[in-house]
Amino acid sequence: MSTDSAMLHAKLKEFFGFDSFKADQERIIKHLVSGNNAFVLMPTGGGKSMCYQLPALVMEGTAIVISPLIALMKNQVDAIRGFVSGNDGIAHFLNSSLNKVQVNEVKKDLISGATKLLYVAPESLTKAENVAMLKEIKISFYAVDEAHCISEWGHDFRPEYRRIRNIIEEIGTAPIIALTATATPKVQSDIMKNLGMPDATVFKSSFNRPNLYYEIRDKSDPKRDIIKYIKQNKGKSGIIYCLSRKKVEELAELLNINGIKAAPYHAGLDAKTRAENQDKFLMEEVDVIVATIAFGMGIDKPDVRFVIHYDIPKSIEGYYQETGRAGRDGKEGQCLTFYSYKDIQKLEKFMQGKPIAEQEIGKQLLMETVAYAESNSCRRKLLLNYFGEDYQTENCGACDNCLHPKRQFDGREEMSMVIELIQALPERFKIEHLANILAGEMNSIIKSYHHDKLELFGAGKDHSAKFWCAVIHQGMVLHLIHKDIESYGLISVTAKGREFFEKPYELMLTEDREFAEGEDEDDDSASAAKGGGGGDPQLLAMLKDLRRDVAKKKKLQPWVIFGDPSLEDMSIMYPMSYDELKNCQGVGDGKARKFGKEFIELISKYVEQNDIERPDDFVMKSIVNKSVNKVFIIQSVDRKLPLEDIADAKGLDMEELLDEIEAIVFSGTKLNLDYYIEQTLDEDIIEDIYDYFREEAESDSLADAMADLGSDYDELEVRLVRIKFLCEVAN
């Protein structure tokens, strides 16, 4: 058929109301209409869907669009029907959400030739009755959308996508157009090979999104940071990605409590709730959608102004695609990601037990994410380079590393010291243990291994253990050091690392950096948000003195009374009653009643004497620590049931059950888990960890405890003994 430009432009204007094509659209459409295969690589917002929608409307027959996103199918079908008024049969979708009557309606329109575009989920495409029906109609071409799902190296791998070629051959061959917004060269060749189209012409648009700003932030207090950021960007639309459904629900609730209109979106919600929440976001009834990374949202909203990753994604491709949902209209798009190495360790834990080949791929993709997060180079350059595109500009002017360069130093001596230490130890150890040895930080694990007697113990005491952890991470990124996921993260030296040790060369490493809070230096809440005592410094000093006196009287560590974040909250919020006090971070009802009296009296007196107007500005309201299964758990513990049985009864895993138990304990309720702890843990282990919390710990932080105690104890043991300690001493 004629692929005359004038005709295509006329149809573009007639159906879609546009006067001209974007970027490569016209070339791609002409190529497809002429009966050729095409592979289209175009970033989110580049206009991929036009590349198959317009050809489908002008070509003879029906175009089959294979898409994994049910939500997006409905969006696109509605959009096409809107463009071509008076003919609802012109576009349909076929997926598991349709009932029998609806399926028959689709079949009727297909057979009559009314339908030009049929969106199909890959699972529906493989059903025998659908294959039989599609054999009866003329197919203009096949469009494989989100084609990266074909590749195991892609970020959303879907095994059923690898069967598409066989099904196409069974139904009847026609030109194929594969489209994706993210594909590395490796993924690209995998897709073309699997779809049996090695001859396809590749149309590749630039992956650069100049309007997007990329920033990685230190994950020290992400909830407070997020609430503050959204309040400073009032009324703007945004998406927040989390790793788990539980975190999605929790964060959406926290935002709403803090006056931000937000809704959750994840695969565990029923279809009706999901659709309602998506519509609320599209119709601007809510400003923020909180969603799981794993769930492809298919939200075609042009004015998303920010995308926040509460948890780091599993791959650069996932990160690029998710951040790509910001600023699709070419205007402002802020991409903020909260990063801590602890999240990487969690993701590594999920990989344990998977097939080795899958682990290897997952591990490599994850290491690339770590390299990106910890890098001091231009983020835009790194991203584009990952997708095989060369970005020449020296300073992009729109990422944290270009706007606030990190300080660098030649770290050859430091790296050599790390490698020497690893090689000096007959057994292998985890990162934190090695860092503690070099920083000369004494703890029970170091004592038990006599590692305080090593020549290198304290050899790097000019720096903190955190600094040495950062050096080791950078050694991993540079492939000088290897971390074995299978053996719980034990560290070894690679061949490249041994070569470096023999002949050290200049090695520019990055100093550890605290991320800046933003431009508004005089905003009180900025330092408060960082836990920097942004409240009343005079009151904070008085509260710390009072805490020290109470701790002395009760022969306890000061943090057991109230942690620093609790005192900082008190210095911002000036609580003058038990109800107000228990809303401060880490207080809860039990602690408020046990230790609160003198603190409330001190604050009330201070407020009165200094004529203080109590604030109602930026104070993060926290969700009351609550456990959904509180009564059941308390009764089961009273009956001395094994924790495994309690978890099974509520369909929880052990980590989730401990989260629930901690919520109960942190809100001040006593639980006696001795029957389980004494049966499960060795007496010496209980004693060591208990002594650590009683004598050494500076807070109740689990991360600090894991770093200080080192690799001899696992997280479950530390959490159980911490619960015991808090119940016996603090509650």
Model description:
This protein is α/β, with parallel strands linked by helices and 731 residues long. It has 5 domains: 5-204, P-loop containing nucleotide triphosphate hydrolases (Rossmann fold); 212-403, 3-Layer(aba) Sandwich (Rossmann fold); 408-510, Arc Repressor Mutant, subunit A (Orthogonal Bundle); 525-609, DNA polymerase, domain 1 (Orthogonal Bundle), CATH 1.10.150; 630-730, Arc Repressor Mutant, subunit A (Orthogonal Bundle). Helices cover 49% and strands 11% of the residues. It is built from 35 helices and 17 strands. The strands form 4 sheets. The chain has a 7-stranded parallel sheet, sandwiched between helices. A hairpin with a 5-residue loop joins strand 15 and strand 16. The longest helix is centred in the last third of the chain and has 22 residues, at 588-609. The chain is globular, with a radius of gyration of 29 Å.
